[in-house]
């Protein structure tokens, strides 16, 4: 999938994530790590279906690196806190600014690639899912790192209304082992 429909779907998905996370929601391991990993994988698979020029590969590598850095900065800017014994996250104004910068860079790079190599313009849109997924994955890793340093429980599944319906024994067990060995920072 690529082109205008993909762009509209991605913008809708990003808008949905932004709205939920601005209001605050429990840290859900699947949403935080698994979905971005799948998005990255689908984006990579899409890239293998399109012939890439050296110019488009350079743009893809550059925008991916920028997305990774901005994802890490977004993760650092996210507020992680406990509510009713469950770890929550909330986007901040800084997080939104970093999201805007990420989208401007990606779409600006796609536009610049179209000017530099008109034949590679399609390749730019095919890398959108890869760079978005990679940035979200790094953001998720940063959030999970923060969440592991709290005393709250992490969710493994979410129900309607964003309520935690199952805790994540794997993540809580990992954090408890870190506590026993004195490795977890506060």
From TrEMBL:
Transmembrane segments: 55-73, 93-116, 122-144
Entry keyword set: Membrane, Transmembrane, Transmembrane helix
Protein name: DUF1453 domain-containing protein
């Amino acid at each position: 999938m690529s082109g205008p429909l993909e762009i509209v779907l991605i913008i809708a998905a990003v808008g949905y994530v932004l709205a939920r996370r601005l209001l605050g929601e429990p840290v859900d391991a699947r949403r935080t790590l698994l979905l971005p990993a799948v998005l990255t994988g689908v984006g990579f698979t899409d890239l293998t279906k399109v012939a890439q020029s050296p110019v488009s590969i350079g743009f893809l590598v550059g925008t991916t690196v920028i997305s990774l850095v901005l994802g890490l900065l977004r993760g650092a800017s996210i507020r992680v806190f406990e509510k009713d014994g469950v770890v929550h996250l909330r986007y901040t104004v800084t997080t939104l600014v970093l999201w805007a910068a990420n989208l401007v860079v990606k779409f600006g790079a796609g536009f610049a690639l179209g000017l530099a190599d008109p034949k590679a313009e399609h390749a730019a849109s095919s890398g959108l899912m890869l760079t978005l997924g990679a940035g979200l994955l790094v953001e998720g890793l940063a959030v999970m790192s923060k969440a592991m340093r709290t005393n709250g429980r992490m969710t493994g599944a979410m129900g309607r209304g964003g309520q935690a319906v199952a805790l994540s024994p794997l993540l809580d067990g990992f954090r408890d082992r870190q506590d026993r060995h004195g490795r977890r920072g506060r």
